[in-house]
Amino acid sequence: MSVPCVIIPTFWTRRRGRTPDNLLAVYDHPTPVDEDGTLPACLQSLQNVEGLGRVVLIVAATDPGIEHQAEDRVRDILADFPGIDALVFGPAEMGSLHRRIEQLEFADMLSGLSLVGYGAVRNVGLIAGAVLGCESVVFVDDDQIITDKGFLLRASDGLGMRLDDGRAVLAKTGYYTDESGAYQRHASPHWSDMYWRQNDAFNQALAAVDAPPRIKPSPLAFGGCFALHKDMYLNVSFDPWVMRGEDIDYVINARMHGGDVFLDGDWSVIHNPPKLSSEALQFRQDVYRFIYEHRKLEFAKSQVDLRQVSPESMAPYPGPFLGSGVAWRAMVTAVLRGLSRREGGRYLRIARLAMNEAADYARENCQNYFDFQRRWPILMDRIWDDVALKSLFTGERKVDRTAITGRFPSVEDS
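RE: above sequence
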């Protein structure tokens, strides 16, 4: 198999503690633009990987006002790694991509191809893979450390093959460990989570890591250790409207379209995320996410061209959080956390408001993905190895940033 393209989404914010107005722009731990964050360590580890080819860094920001500052920060960091063949994809490149997509008469898809939201950002990565004609793409998050020089060889191992039962391995995930090699979450459950045993279900699913065979179907996926064959990524997109967990949501998308995501028990990375700024905010995003997922599965039942995916088929995780009872369980958990844990006020606001708002969001947006997805294979076929875009993604054609970004030279310099 040819060398895969490595895609690194990287998320930036103005300052810690500020919550974006756009819920899709709420990320777990974005890096403040006046800091380096975890990206340098990730790139440092990546440059030791054998067979490293093209790397695409996709820059997303929580606030449109800092998009260019975040892009400049990433370029400054990348300058310390001249041995990496990398493209920084920021707002100027996004503008060029949008104009080309409009020329190809896919303007209705622009909302799902942007630098806002986990799913939309990953879709831009898939676009990059198609434009560059990549047989496969490998996603790595900017808070990962790669210690295995054969990381990309393991990523490609088995990708594209057929199992004895005839199923094709077109999407493959590794898993995260901490620096000691542990891959399960060890925090003791708090009594307020009696209806929300998320870590317990997650650990139960991860028990499959040590179980044979090495490569097996999984309800889990880890977006920072994720490989997609072109026969998968050209046909199945990420969901731009899911708040978080877009990697596990991709498992659902793949299954709906007749495929699977496989877990490779011999492929892993060290996950070294910064401390969460707000557990309550992450919980709110999960509430939106799971209520949306439930609605999405219900809506899919009316789509005759899709394979049905049930909560039970996604056990042990995230299946228990995809059923009809997820809304009341989330509300009760929010109240219990609000009465017993830090950020109590935030949790109580989630209990009062987020339940109805999350249901409204799910109802208003669950059809969006299906409309977007039906056009996805047609778009990807049109842009595969697209000459106009390829010069942009290879760096052969430079973007005039003074015209596009408004960073005009001063009068004294002209």
